[in-house]
């Protein structure tokens, strides 16, 4: 009986030992497998396409009025030529994408009929397809992305007071008449660092009369400051303003008649001044002065509420600034300080909190 008990005990030990060996092998194999695979979070991150760059919450689908026209889901080329649309153009750059998304969000929220809007986005980076990301953030947004070849202006750009002003995409607005379809006769151009608190359709309805460009202008500004002493000392340069009263205007908000633009070949006129700048250094501020040289004193003045600019401070320090006295329809963080950067670093300005209401970027 004792021998039988000992045999059963040995059998039990053998089975246990075999089981433990099997478990050990499984653990070793599993450990090796886990070592060769990234953890769950790493897999999620690697498949998220530059996350957190594209980590945004989805915008609400704004239905602001039951009386708005419901356009059929026609193809983009057909829809673009619909004469009832309000056309808006903005540049798309990954560095300023957060600003662009907030700007679009504010436009949709305050537009009486967001269904009537069509966005023309200009990008100079072929390596990143921004279309699916925008479609995910704004599921009902009507838009098209156009490629702007940086080589078109690469040899025409001169150095500026701030490196960001030298980016080729800043000059894309010069070429909107060529980039957009010929059936697009008018467009509102907007910078990426703006927020609207009014219906953009009211800006769209601005009468340009016989002019090609409409923009808020500021005649109290010292216009001479936008050009170097060399410009004002040479008659061949300053005589361009003969017969007109030039006032400063900010090119971050413009209503543009593309039909007239194409007819009078304004792109060539802007390029002419860019070439002169490369040789004679007649200004310091990137893409703005050529517009002043061609259009200042010859624009349709728009109420200044449509461009409360300068909220980003000056081009170097980016200090806090307040809005000007009077009504406000559009806030513009032109200058060196961008609200999303100041908010992230804990050094925000009071007005940056207003911008934050439209920020869809998810920090989590």
Automatic annotation (TrEMBL):
List the Gene3D superfamilies. Spore Coat Polysaccharide Biosynthesis Protein SpsA, Chain A
Pathway assigned in UniProt: Glycan metabolism; pectin biosynthesis
Q: How does it sit in the membrane?
A: Single-pass type II membrane protein
Q: What is its EC number?
A: 2.4.1.-
Question: What InterPro entries does the record point to?
Answer: Glyco_trans_8 (IPR002495), Glycosyltrans_8_dom-fam (IPR050748), Nucleotide-diphossugar_trans (IPR029044)
Question: Where does it live in the cell?
Answer: Membrane
Q: Which terms in the GO cellular component ontology are assigned?
A: Golgi apparatus; membrane
Chain ranges passing through the membrane? 12-34
The similarity comment for this entry is: Belongs to the glycosyltransferase 8 family.
- Protein name (Swiss-Prot/TrEMBL): Hexosyltransferase
